Amino acid sequence: MKIIVICSGGLDSVSLAHMVAARHELTRLVSFDYGQRHAKELDFAKAAAERLGVPFHRIDMRTIGAALTGSALTSDIDVPDGHYAEETMRITVVPNRNAIMLAIAFGVAAANGDEAVATAVHGGDHFIYPDCRPGFTRAFETMQRAALDGYADVSLYTPFVTRTKADIVTEGAKHGTPFAETWSCYKGGETHCGRCGTCVERREAFHLAGVADPTVYADPDFWVQAVASREEA
């Protein structure tokens, strides 16, 4: 199957790209610049495309992102510390982000004769992000089939939608993903902060998967405290 992967440059989507390249025909990586403060992730997506030998499409959505105000990822709002499963992390929601990106990616896939669009949404995202949940992905695929009816037959590939981030680390390791060449931190500093939700979730996932984490964190031990606080809540 010819598959296009939406790739942010993060651990999940780069692992997905390597898995698709091993199991299917990876045709291209598509990334979106929506004005996120951690836009450095896009350099990691481009590097993944070069490593896997496929075209890289960087799509400029900054004018759209500027209108999607109120998120810590696109507005002048501090990214909170703590685990993803905490209510405070809702401030990192960019409304309708995945729906917008997927719609564009389906158009790119249809225009290029690709058979599926792959995205790395996973079970750990469900609490916070509504456009990462199985109900959304099923409905979106149905909508896209209607939108492209008679023109192209493109499906939505979400192999991690009911799985954990630790499962993604396991799959990534199995397919040779260079984890050090991925970027997750929402704060976009010189190194991963180790304190924001995505850093905590990343560090915990390596621990649960039993895979060595090559990531350099400014605060490498904060995740233990964050996980303990979540479990006590």
TrEMBL record:
Keywords: ATP-binding, Ligase, Metal-binding, Nucleotide-binding, Queuosine biosynthesis, Zinc
Entry note: cofactor: Binds 1 zinc ion per subunit.
TM ranges: none
Reaction catalysed by this enzyme: 7-carboxy-7-carbaguanine + NH4(+) + 2 ATP = 7-cyano-7-carbaguanine + 2 AMP + 2 diphosphate + 2 H(+)
One Pfam family it belongs to: QueC
CDD domains hit by this protein: QueC-like
Any single GO BP term: tRNA queuosine(34) biosynthetic process
Gene3D superfamilies: HUPs
GO MF annotation list: ATP binding; ligase activity, forming carbon-nitrogen bonds; zinc ion binding
Recorded metabolic or biological pathway in which this protein acts: Purine metabolism; 7-cyano-7-deazaguanine biosynthesis
Database matches in InterPro entries: QueC, Rossmann-like_a/b/a_fold
Sequence positions that bind Zn(2+): 185, 193, 196, 199
Annotated ATP binding sites: 7-17
EC number(s) stated in the UniProt entry for this protein: 6.3.4.20
Cofactors: Zn(2+)
Role: Catalyzes the ATP-dependent conversion of 7-carboxy-7-deazaguanine (CDG) to 7-cyano-7-deazaguanine (preQ(0)).
Family designation: Belongs to the QueC family.
Protein name (record): 7-cyano-7-deazaguanine synthase
Organism encoding this protein: Alloyangia pacifica
